[in-house]
Amino acid sequence: MPPVRMSNAQAVRAQLGAQGFGDPRPGGSVDVRHFRRMIRRISLLQIDSVNVLTRSHYLPVYARLGPYDRGRLDRFIYDAPEMFEYWSHEQAYTPIGLHSATRFKMNAYEGRGWKRIAEIEADHPGYVDAVLDEIGERGPISSRLLDDPGERTGPWWGYGKGKIALEWLFTTGKIAVAKRVNFERFYDLPERVIPPEVLAQQALDPTSAHLARVSAAVKALGIGTVKDIADYFRMKVVETGQALESLAELGGVTRVEVSQWGRPAYAHPDLVIPRSITGIALLSPFDPVVWDRARAERMYGFHYRIEIYTPEPKRVFGYYVLPILFDGRLVGRVDLKADRQAGVLRVKGAYTENGVDRTALASALASELETMAGWLGLEGVVVGSNGDLAGPLALAL
Quick one: CA dihedral 65, 182, 51, 87, positive or negative? Predict the structure, then answer.
């Protein structure tokens, strides 16, 4: 069959619909059913340690569902559990149904070996096995609670030998993350974390695993190029292309030609393109809509870079900048900080793209920021002076 043709505007609405922005936010309390439906759609919640606003994995849920109980989401992730933590798209929470399609990565890492693990074993023979035995006896425990965690060798990734051993055991699937306490990971044996019926499933072979993950990525994206789809679970482009062609022959994906993209694309066969996308949402830097910066620029004409690691004098927009999705377009960005000591949500900067109605945007953004402040337990919103939207926003508030 010839490819289905669509415009870039249709592709944008297709993506936003697939990501859950085509539905209104729940009118009442957000519960497990809402979490489950959302996660089945987007498949991933990327994890990041920066807490200037709130932990990043909470923000995509808020963007789609509005205010909710973060503790309830934690219980959904860990207590049921309906998700597991692994290197899916960077470090991420992933639906438990994809566990068997992820185990081949764990096996591949074990066969590859790590230089730092080899060094530890050379200097401290039997140390890694001793750490595994300790987790079996005492788990769940964190790296700092190990009997012999070792000394850090420097800042950032200068981990002690205990942390390195735990990372190796986690990456190879010999231990799992049982919970996080103040973002600190606590590890335990997989059989005490992952439901037994899931562990009983045979690990998919690499080809079948690629098909499963590619299918999930296409469903989450709605539509994408081979490279777009490969990035979702950080898969190899060649293997992703092969999986997409296999799925296309089986009817699992539809070939699409999007005007102005200049490259083949694929869509989920049950894709529904909303007639319109309305409302406002603030997107985490690690939201699936914008985490692929090149894709966001191609689809929305929105150039976005996170500036956390940029020296302050060289920052253009700010430290923790969230893109603004408004009526189906990326129309601006806000630099936000939860000032917990002062009890306010600080808007350090607010900016619009060219041709945006600042008055209409400021009104919608003011309401959203007040809602977000309440969700974060803050008493109000304070707007700074940076950016062309700062003045209209301050007036709207």
Answer: negative
According to DSSP H, which parts of 55-126 are helical?
Answer: 58-65, 70-78, 103-112, 115-123
For 214-240, what is each residue's pLDDT tens digit? Answer: 999 999 999 999 999 999 999 999 999
Per-residue HEC secondary structure of 367-386 comes to: HHHHHHHHHCCCCEEEEEEE
Of 373, 374, 365, the C-alpha closest to 397 is 365
135: DSSP letter: H
What CA–CA distance (Å, rounded) separates 255 from 264?
Answer: 7
The Cα 172–Cα 108 span in angstroms is 8
Distance in angstroms (rounded) separating the CA atoms of residues 39 and 70: 15
CA separation for the pair 136, 248 (Å, rounded): 45
Q: Which amino acid is at 300?
A: Y
b/e burial code for range 190-213 (CB count within 10 A of at least 16 → b): beebbeeebeeeebbeeeebbbbb
| Four-residue CA torsion sign, 323, 325, 326, 331 | positive
Residue from 107, 85, 105 nearest 95 by CA: 85
> What's CA 316's distance to the chain center, in Å?
24
Strands, E, within 33-96: which ranges? 45-46, 83-87, 91-95
Q: Does residue 78 contact residue 179 with C-beta atoms inside 8 Å?
A: yes
Low-confidence ranges of the chain (pLDDT < 70): 151-158
Q: Which of 97, 96, 187 is nearest to 137 (CA)?
A: 187
The Cβ-side half-sphere exposure at 226, using a 13 Å CA radius, reads 16
How far is residue 170's CA from residue 164's CA, in Å, rounded to a whole number? 10
The pTM of this model reads 0.94
Tell me the CB-side half-sphere exposure of residue 288, using CA atoms within 13 A: 36
DSSP structure class, residue 183: T
Q: What number of residues does the chain have?
A: 397
**Cβ within 8 Å of residue 191, ≥6 positions away:** 199
**What are the start-end ranges of the E strands in 259-391?**
265-267, 280-282, 321-326, 329-339, 344-352, 380-386
Contacts (Cβ under 8 Å, ≥6 apart) of 308: 50, 319, 320
pLDDT tens by residue, 197-209: 999 999 999 999 9
